[in-house]
Write a structure and sequence with these properties.
- This protein is α/β, with parallel strands linked by helices.
- It has one domain.
- The chain contains nine helices and 21 strands.
- Strands 1, 4, 5, 7, 8, 10, 12, 14, 16, 18 and 20 form an eleven-stranded mixed β-sheet that branches. Strands 3-2-6-9-11-13-15-17-19-21 form a ten-stranded mixed β-sheet.
- It starts with 8 loop residues before the first helix and ends with a helix.
- 47% of the residues are buried.
- The C terminus is likely disordered.
């Protein structure tokens, strides 16, 4: 890897924190030194803009500038929490460090943990679980993350505990020329139930976010997870979300991506236990010069497992999107089912969308399918609405909202649907305003 002084072994060692975390950082930084930096020539980075990232522009957020307990500069406890509605727990994370955490006392008495991983006195077993789900899914960005990890948001639910209301993890990242490394670890014990809402945001700042979320669902656990990314227009976000499912565990994950300059998410589900089930849905909408990049893996390694994926995106102006997904059915995944669907709307002549579904089937008794589409709004749908007196701009808005509705209706937590729909409408109307402006200018000429 090209040497970047701001991300050296010495820089990783200089960060504060407990000894076990410092040792972990240094080991990752040393491994990073011999790791090749990714390029678009690699299949996993094909069509990406990774060659535009100049890491020398960034430095880790200085330890002195990281949030501390009680720091309210992150807007997590205000409008964001109110939009999400009633919740059982709350973690506010600023530039990767937990600055505030709350938990219902009754749940705390049952052994639920919602706290900062580096400082809340976790035992050796909990420390060792950090990185256990990521496992062999490491790459340069995961190593970079581990080398400069300030701590992490921990959500641990003991066996048999059912949490009805969601737990919120609200990330705020800022600072020109700085990089932050948010980490979230979700551990769901046997027969437990939990819903986690993770929300990312930043102002109009040139910031790099390198985020990792691990979800470990024990046998018979039921986990619902929603990630919402609403960064400012100059933020780069590169995220890894990986889950491991035990026997008869269920996982429903949803991702919504609306912000950022370049925003990439690797979403992976490893179905290790017989009867495990995974559902993954996503909605994304890019405008301006944005690029939204999704890479998914449905990895079946046990019999009678089931996975289903539905990703829907729209792009306008000069924005672009990439979806590349792999269904892998290993030899031991007999009598499993896996389905993958990606749909894309291209709303402007200068926008583009790539869709690459893939299958790797090593078992001979399975059900599997995949499909993708890329195209403009259907002319017949527009004609139908316009013939009933609906103005063209309103007709287009209705079609796009309808396109996303089946994803929004399946979000694990519905409290944010109204807010997300408003953002989609804003993007559509901004393009409509630009189009009307061009039409008016052409008419004057």
């Amino acid at each position: 890897m090209v040497a970047f002084p701001a991300f050296s072994v010495a820089a990783a060692r200089a960060l504060g924190g407990p000894e076990w975390l410092v040792e972990r950082r240094v080991a990752a930084a040393e491994q990073l030194e011999s790791t090749a930096w990714p390029t678009p020539a690699e299949e996993i980075w094909r069509y990406s803009r990774i060659d535009e990232l100049d890491l020398s522009r960034y430095r880790p957020v200085p330890d002195a500038d990281l949030g501390v307990a009680g720091d309210e500069r992150a807007p997590g406890g205000g409008p964001w929490a109110m939009e999400a509605g009633a919740h059982a727990g709350l973690l506010v994370v600023r530039d990767g460090r937990v600055v505030r955490h709350e938990l219902d006392p009754e749940l705390e008495a049952l052994g639920v943990r919602v706290c900062e991983l580096a400082t809340c006195g976790v035992d050796d077993e909990m420390r060792e679980s950090l990185g256990a789900v990521v496992g062999d899914s490491t790459d340069a960005f995961t190593l970079l993350h581990d080398a400069f990890l300030p701590g992490g948001a921990l959500i641990s639910v003991p066996d048999g505990v059912v949490i009805d209301a969601p737990i919120l993890v609200l990330h705020w990242c800022e600072g020109d020329g700085q990089a932050s490394f948010p980490r979230t670890l979700v551990r769901a014990g046997r027969r437990s139930e939990v819903t986690v809402l993770e929300r990312y945001g930043s102002p109009n700042t040139d910031h790099l976010v390198d985020a990792v979320t691990e979800i470990d669902a024990a046998p018979d656990a039921h986990v619902r997870y929603l990630s919402v990314q609403e960064h400012g227009p100059r933020t780069w976000h590169i995220g890894l979300q990986r889950a491991r499912l035990g026997r008869d565990a269920t996982l429903k994950t949803a991702s919504v991506a609306l912000g950022g300059d370049y925003a990439r998410l690797r979403a992976e589900a490893l179905l290790q236990g017989e009867g495990a089930e995974s559902e993954m849905v996503a909605a994304y909408f890019g405008d301006g010069q944005q690029m939204l990049d999704f890479r998914t893996l449905q990895d079946h390694d046990a019999p009678r497992t089931r996975s289903a994926l539905l990703f829907k995106g729209a792009v306008e102006d000069a924005a672009s999107s990439v979806y590349s997904g792999l269904i892998r059915l290993r030899e031991g995944a007999q009598k499993s089912e896996a389905y993958q669907t990606n749909r894309n709307l291209v709303l402007s002549e200068g926008a583009s969308a790539e869709s690459i579904p893939n299958l790797e089937i090593l078992a001979n008794d399975v059900k599997c399918s995949h499909g993708s589409t890329v195209g403009p709004i259907d002319d017949e749908q527009l004609y139908y609405l316009e013939s009933r007196g609906i103005p063209p701009a309103d007709a287009e808005r209705l079609i796009v909202l309808g396109f996303f509705d089946d994803v929004f209706s399946r979000l694990p937590h519905g409290g944010l649907v109204a807010s997300l729909r408003r953002t989609v409408i804003d993007k559509i109307e901004h393009r409509g305003g630009r189009s009307r402006g061009r039409e008016q200018a052409a008419g004057r000429s």
